[in-house]
Design brief:
Layout lengths: L3 H8 L9 E3 L10 E6 L10 H13 L4 E5 L7 H18 L5 E7 L1 H13 L2 E5 L22 E6 L10 H15 L1 H7 L2 E4 L14 H5 L11 H19 L7 H19 L2 H14 L8 E6 L3 H5 L4 E3 L2 E8 L14 E6 L1 H5 L10 H14 L3 H10 L3 E3 L3 E2 L7 H4 L3 E5 L2 E5 L1 E4 L12 E6 L2 H9 L5
Length: 465
């Protein structure tokens, strides 16, 4: 029995200028019941995905999956153009393949963002390469990994120079509740995230950046992974994901890869949790309250700038209460330490009132402590890579700002200066003395400091670009 679309096509009523690239399974020994749609990245030629597509087909055969892949020839780099191409390809698939076929959409980079809604609407499975959902609420799309209603695989490159793989920690955090309720094994089939060691952003295509990307200064991190091996690793993950979702129970590669990725992301995720940062902040305050004076410490988070602006650190019942704010504003055009910790602490003078016990605690020394402590717990490979190839980071004297109505400290960002590919970081600080008026502002130490997560991102990403 023919479908309605096939009936229209037979009558000549349904016509389309189909200019997309069809890669047939070869040799065509089996009926094809799985069809892939590949959506290119921003201005990446569709032909650049032929080798990867063929590798996926070859690897899938080893799992007894026989599939065709259609690479979209997108006319314009807009959501409307991507969605039009998907509609054309889906119509072609409905005409050309059996009704019980399964369709997956695999999209690269910005192509995944442009294609997300159509993947949800018209496909059975979605595969994102070098792209993330909106789990941190900063990306220009509404979907999150936990709310996406179809099985979805996220493939990231550890040497991707355009997308920090550590951002996937927010994806994993979004899945935490589902992992608790549905189980880890279920999520490793339906929502796996896989970071492939050595893989770069453009090895998900043919390895070449577009002209516009070159003009914008985009580049990947150096890697020893060959393009052929990169395609093989991607294909292995894709084929296993598809096999698991069409009924195979004997494929463990994706599950193990998701487990390894989860361990990497959990370590990073710990650094961005408010509880962890509160301990760090209390430790910083403790530097300003050295023995023999003994205090308890409590940090209060201010989740918007207005609250932080009017907050006040204080000493209450032998507890020093600090005030903190972390600037989560998207920082696409700012330096790597723009989203730092903003702290209001009690000054040493306010705590001790005795000049003889004052210590020389500066933002410079605090930043160095945070960097060194975080660097020590990175993997030997990450440390060695930074020491051999990374742009080194050092810490300069504090930028001293003055109290006053112009809010100088609030307006001053952490400064990052490039000296022949070595970088000097300086933090703004501000003190108020213990006799300042009004009294609510006395004895305070304002400081902006780096976070452990920013150290990881510098060592593994920014310093290597």
């Amino acid at each position: 029995m023919i479908s309605f679309l096939q009936f229209l096509y037979a009558l000549g009523i349904f016509k389309t200028n189909f200019n997309h690239i069809i890669l047939k399974n070869f040799p065509p020994t089996r009926e094809i019941k799985i069809v892939g749609i590949l959506m290119p990245g921003y201005q990446v030629p569709p032909n650049d995905y032929k080798d990867l597509s063929k590798e996926i087909q070859t690897t899938a055969k080893k799992n007894n999956l026989y599939l065709d892949i259609i690479i979209a020839n997108v006319q314009n780099t807009t959501t409307a153009s991507y969605e039009k191409s998907i509609d054309e390809i889906v119509d072609y698939i409905d005409l050309s393949y059996p009704p019980d076929k399964k369709t997956f959409l695999i999209a690269h980079s910005a192509g995944a963002t442009f294609s997300s809604n159509k993947a949800m609407e018209k496909c059975d499975f979605f595969i994102r390469m070098g792209s993330l959902f909106n789990s941190k609420n900063i990306l220009p799309n509404a979907n999150t990994v936990d709310s996406f209603p179809k099985p979805v695989l996220t493939i990231l490159g550890q040497n991707d120079g355009l997308l920090k793989y550590t951002l996937a920690s927010y994806e994993l955090a979004a899945l935490e509740q589902k992992i608790k309720t549905l189980g880890y094994d279920y999520l490793s089939v339906k929502k796996p995230i896989v970071i492939i060691p050595g893989l770069t952003h453009m090895q998900m295509a043919k390895g070449n950046f577009t002209e516009i990307a070159k003009k914008l200064g985009m580049k990947d991190l150096d890697t020893n992974l060959t393009l052929k091996d990169a395609h093989s690793k991607i294909a292995h993950v894709v084929a296993d994901f598809l096999s698991l979702n069409v009924g195979s129970t004997n494929n463990y590669f994706v599950k193990n890869s998701f487990k390894n990725t989860s361990e990497i992301l959990k370590k990073y995720g710990a650094f961005i949790k408010y509880d962890y940062l509160s301990v760090l902040i209390s430790n910083i305050q403790q530097l300003l309250a050295p023995p023999p004076i003994l205090f308890k410490f409590y940090n209060n988070w201010n989740y918007n700038l207005d609250l932080f602006l009017y907050s006040k650190p204080e000493i209450y019942n032998n507890t020093i209460i600090t005030q903190s704010f972390i600037n989560n504003t998207p920082a696409f055009n700012e330096n790597a330490f723009f989203n730092c910790l903003w702290l209001k602490l009690k000054s040493q003078q306010a705590i001790t009132n005795t000049l003889s016990v004052l210590q020389n605690v500066t933002a410079q020394s605090i930043n160095a402590r945070i960097f060194n402590a975080t660097f020590e717990i990175l993997t030997a490979h990450q440390q060695q890579n930074y020491l051999l190839l990374g742009k080194k980071l050092s810490f300069g004297q504090d930028i001293i700002t003055q109290p006053g109505p112009n809010l100088e400290w609030f307006k001053t960002n952490i400064k990052l200066t490039n000296f022949n590919n070595s970088f000097l970081l300086q933090s703004p600080t501000m003190y108020t003395n213990t006799t300042v008026s009004p009294e609510r502002f006395d004895g305070m130490y304002y400081v902006k400091v780096i976070t452990p997560a920013q150290v990881v991102d510098w060592v593994t990403f920014h310093s290597l670009k």
